[in-house]
Design a protein that fits this description.
Blueprint: E1 6-9, H1 14-25, E2 30-34, H2 39-46, E3 50-53, E4 65-68, H3 77-85, E5 89-91, H4 92-100, E6 104-109, H5 114-127, E7 133-135, E8 147-148, E9 154-158, E10 173-176, H6 190-202, E11 207-211, H7 215-221, E12 230-235, E13 242-249, E14 254-260, E15 263-270, H8 275-290, H9 295-303, E16 313-318, E17 321-326, H10 331-344, E18 350-354, H11 359-364, H12 366-373, E19 378-381, H13 397-406, E20 410-413, H14 417-427, E21 433-437, H15 445-461
Parallel strand pairs: 1-2, 1-4, 2-3, 4-5, 6-9, 6-10, 7-9, 10-11, 11-12, 12-13, 17-21, 18-19, 18-21, 19-20
Antiparallel strand pairs: 7-8, 13-14, 14-15, 16-17
Helix pairs in contact: 1-4, 5-8, 5-9, 8-9, 10-12, 12-13, 14-15
Length: 462
């Protein structure tokens, strides 16, 4: 139970700030701390949260409940003080589970596409006249906020499988977009991962929406038939109940038809490109129908969806050289993003600045990263963003660079961010795309790349 005042250690993170914002909207006293200030923290302060920069045991002096992010170490002085004081200490997932009680909750899980699918479902449901609550790991462009306390009876939450914490949600309904090994620091085998997703499904009360185009999803879907759940399968597969067909993708969006058990529901036109987003939209549509909402209104809502920040996000355009930013940090995601870029680009080349995320992931998927990145025309590899992990022998961007080079794609391993930007700018011509890619601080490069492109353009004109 969440007893106020509630203190968040690491309040600036996407998941923690989302929960804090909902609590503030409910009129609950919230305090928090974080290692550094940010726009997110400024917005929480504006809503009434008391946030300190830096961690100190005194920060929890008024708290009755403490919530911690997964990034918080046992040595954190606020966590140590909370435990010594006997205060209830909840994980982010446990606190979100408390918020979801009393709602028809939908937990959106899967290795890839969770953030976009959760955002799509929220927008589609809003079009139906329902005001859902939601907590999302990214920021939808439609709302400019990663969370909302709604007046309706539906609560939509992105459900992170990385540490199995999604097992505490016990949702009314669930979406599984795909199932693939990613977090090798937590899952030692495919079997362990699949069992965790099966446990998640068993904790779900009413319905499951799952993609059968995905090998992992299809394998799991075949094992849950005996459960007392309304299972809706989706995809292009002939076995899918919600079947996708007539797919076309372009620079400006995607178009497809959806058929429910042999009956055409309608044509869906998305404002965002990428075939993977066709699957994400179909998952959202299926969940909306499972909630008893009007398919036509859901489809209309999906047609208005404006995307999510850091998901193939256009940062700017200088002399017809476009700069995008994307969160892709797994080989499957990298492939999908570059494929989307191919839809968008009419001519010219794709230049990717990629920052591997975590040593464990880089070591496990080096070959996969090389294969997916080699579909670009030029690759610039930064050093690994450790995200708190210790370095691992053999985990290196240079290993990926060598494999890409062996595949015949132009590649540079450039540890210097300044030099990496210069390489991208020097190589870019009109009609080219530059994509900054990864889950680390590579996202900050877009502004500087645009500045350097602008300077180069003015120099050429002089």
């Amino acid at each position: 139970m969440l007893t106020e005042p509630i203190h968040f250690i690491g309040i600036g993170g996407s998941g923690m700030s989302a929960i804090a914002r909902i609590l503030l909207d409910r009129g609950i006293q919230v305090s928090g701390s974080d290692a550094k200030d940010s726009i997110v923290i400024a917005s929480l302060r504006a809503l009434g949260a008391k946030v300190e920069i830096g961690h100190n045991a005194n920060n929890i002096s008024l708290a009755k409940t403490v919530v911690i992010s997964t990034a918080i170490k046992d040595s954190n002085p606020e966590l140590k003080a909370a435990l010594q004081s006997g205060l209830p200490v909840l994980s982010r997932a446990q606190s979100l589970s408390e918020l979801m009680k009393g709602y028809r909750s939908v937990a959106v899980a899967g290795t890839h596409g969770k953030t976009t699918t959760t955002s799509m479902l929220a927008v589609a449901i809003q079009e139906c006249g329902v005001d859902p609550s939601f907590a999302i790991g990214g920021t939808p462009n439609d709302s400019n906020s990663n969370s909302h306390h709604g007046t309706g009876d539906v609560f939509i939450a992105e459900a992170d499988e990385s540490d199995s914490s999604f097992l505490v949600y016990n949702p009314f309904g669930a979406i599984i977009t795909n199932v693939e090994i990613d977090h090798v620091d937590h899952f030692s085998s495919k079997e362990q991962l699949h069992q965790t997703f099966l446990d998640f499904i068993k904790s779900t009360k009413e319905f499951l929406v799952i993609c059968v185009d995905d090998d992992g999803g299809n394998e799991i879907a075949s094992t849950v038939k005996e459960l007392q759940l309304n299972v809706i399968t989706y995809g292009e597969s002939e076995n899918a109940q919600m079947r996708i067909s007539h797919v076309s993708t372009s620079a400006t969006g995607s178009f497809f038809r959806v058929t429910w058990q042999g009956v055409v529901l309608g044509e869906v036109a998305l404002n965002i490109p990428g075939k993977h987003n066709v699957l994400n939209a179909t998952a959202a549509l299926s969940a909306g129908i499972a909630l008893g909402l009007n398919p036509n209104q859901l489809i209309l809502g999906l047609s208005k969806f404006q995307g999510v920040r850091r998901r193939f996000e256009l940062k700017g355009n200088v002399k017809n050289i476009r700069v995008f930013d994307d969160y892709a940090h797994h080989p499957t995601e990298v492939s999908a993003t570059i494929a989307t870029a191919r839809d968008v680009i009419e001519q010219g080349k794709i230049i990717v600045i990629f920052q591997p995320h975590r040593y464990s992931r880089t070591l496990a998927f080096a070959e996969g990263f090389a294969q997916s990145l080699s579909t670009a025309d030029q690759v610039i590899l930064l050093d690994i963003y450790g995200a708190g992990e210790e370095s691992i022998p053999g985990a290196s961007s240079s290993v990926i660079a060598k494999q890409i080079r062996d595949l015949g794609t132009k590649v540079d391993f450039e540890p210097s961010i300044v030099a990496a930007i210069e390489l991208a700018v020097a190589g870019a011509k009109p009609n080219d795309l530059i994509i900054t890619m990864g889950a680390g601080d590579v996202t900050s490069l877009g502004k500087e790349i645009l500045t350097r492109l602008d300077e180069a353009a003015k120099s050429d004109e002089a």
